[in-house]
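Bug report

Summary: structure tokens for glucan endo-1,3-beta-D-glucosidase differ between web form and batch submission.
Environment: batch mode, default settings.
Steps: 1) Submit the sequence below via batch. 2) Compare with the web form result.

Sequence submitted:
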Amino acid sequence: MSHHRSDCLVSVPLLLLILSFLLPSFFDTAVCYGKIGNNLPRPADVVAFYGQRNIRQMRLYDPDQEVLTALRGSNFELLLDVPNSDLQRIATHYLEADTWVRNNVRKYTKGVRFRYLSVGNEVQVMQNIEGAVSDLGIKVSTAIDTRSLRGVPPSIGSFTEIFQIFIAPVIDFLVSKKSPLLVNIDTYFIYANNMRDVSLEYALLTSYKNVVNDGSNIYRNLFVALLDTIYAALEELSGGAVNIVVSEST
């Protein structure tokens, strides 16, 4: 198994938060906060719920002002997404990025611990946002998923040829800023789409059998196998110094 250190954010319904603790103990675990649904609890109640269960890291998919206000003083670390609808405008000029950061980040920095900002995979947007937050110590990155990968076993992992066109300049940016790559690893959906070749135990980290042998590395769960596949793909594009933050998992 790779010796890189990864953080993990687990996307699960609030009533199933306990599933996040099935992940290996070497991960820092957080939970994504989605707001699509009916009869949702108040943001203040959700923040309190996280605190009661000692969940100290959160991903928020858009800069919801009510949620950001509720997070003040919570001491949670936050991964905040820049909505896709804002990306084109931010890419046009640094001042647009500065305005976005001022309204959605700086306004809350006295009470909210922003750790990462996730933006689209265009380097110009990433550069503009990074320039607007460089004095705040917030890392700027982008989130990818495992559909961009090819190669089994993990040691020969790489990104698909088409995806390399987009991700190569992003990796160069991440290396230059010492920022991590955000990755969504949805092992259950991989199982659901390929039950013939992927066992439920392998997908849910409960297998006690060796499933993949890769030289001296032995894999009993798909999650770690995918992590090492991504690290191999990064190394192929001169991104061996880039760490991974798992920004979502199901």
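Above is the batch result. After comparison, the two runs are identical; trailing whitespace caused the diff. Residues 189 and 195 are 10 Å apart (CA to CA). The radius of gyration is 18 Å.
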